[in-house]
Design goal:
- This protein is an all-alpha fold.
- It is built from ten helices and no strands.
- Helix 2 (17-31) packs across helix 4 (77-101).
- It has a single domain (2-227), classed as Orthogonal Bundle (MetI-like fold), CATH 1.10.3720.10.
- The chain has helices at 2-14, 17-31, 35-62, 77-101, 105-113, 118-127, 131-147, 150-155, 173-180, 187-227.
């Protein structure tokens, strides 16, 4: 989230004009890549690099914690989290950029007229105005992350065990359904998979309700400060 919003701010407010369109085109192209392609990239490029360089460095620095201990397999919960981050980064960036572009230029001109610097204009006049929209962009990315199946299934290891170490393989609800639905030959097996789908649906609904509640709280707080 911080990297996505920072990239959107840079492309909208700070980047030179000559570099904006090429970067925007690249980000939009990344957002359109199918998840299975990202999964293949994760298997053949990301996981070997993580196993050889990133994971050993993390284990050497943070191996005293239970989250970065144990053997390094490559396929792991941490690899699944990284591939999800790669997937939602261009989505949040694209939406954030469009939201920031919708901020009226009058906001910026008023801040410049009061003597604000370029960064102060961005922080006070632009971000404060677009705060609710940026929060919506983050929730949109979170929704994509919660429902992602193929890319995570290809890099997480698909082991039905819960371990504290992020280096260990794991499983997701969506991955269980995708991997085992064709093997569900008995009624109770099929019902268990439907129950998993119901749990995933409930998590999505609760997440959206919490987001709506937070958004309403932010609007109420903003209105209260304006009245004061």
């Amino acid at each position: 989230m911080p990297l996505s919003i920072a990239t959107g701010i840079y492309l909208t407010e700070l980047a030179p004009v000559w570099i904006r369109q090429p970067l925007v085109s690249i980000i939009e192209m990344l957002a359109a890549i199918p998840s299975v392609i990202l999964g293949l990239w994760g298997i053949f490029v990301m996981i070997p690099w993580l196993r050889a360089h990133a994971f050993p460095a993390l284990k050497a620095a943070l191996g005293w914690t239970p989250f970065f201990s144990g053997p390094i397999y490559g396929v792991s919960m941490l690899a699944g989290g990284i591939i999800i981050a790669v997937m939602i980064l261009p989505i949040i960036t694209s939406v954030s950029r469009e939201i920031l572009r919708s901020v009226p230029n009058l906001q910026r001109e008023a801040a410049y007229a009061l003597g604000a610097t370029r960064w102060e204009v961005t922080r006070i006049a632009v971000l404060s105005y677009a705060k609710n929209g940026l929060f919506g962009a983050v929730i949109l990315g979170l929704g994509r992350a919660l429902g992602e199946t193929m890319a995570v299934t290809m890099v997480i290891g698909n082991t039905p065990q819960i371990k504290a170490s992020l280096f260990a393989p794991g499983y997701t609800l969506a991955s269980v359904i995708a991997n085992e639905f064709t093997e569900a030959t008995t009624d109770i097996y099929l019902q268990a998979l439907f129950e998993i789908g119901l749990v995933l649906f409930g998590i999505t609904i609760i997440t959206n309700l919490v987001a709506q509640l937070l958004l309403k709280t932010m609007k109420t707080s903003k209105t209260t400060r304006a009245v004061q």
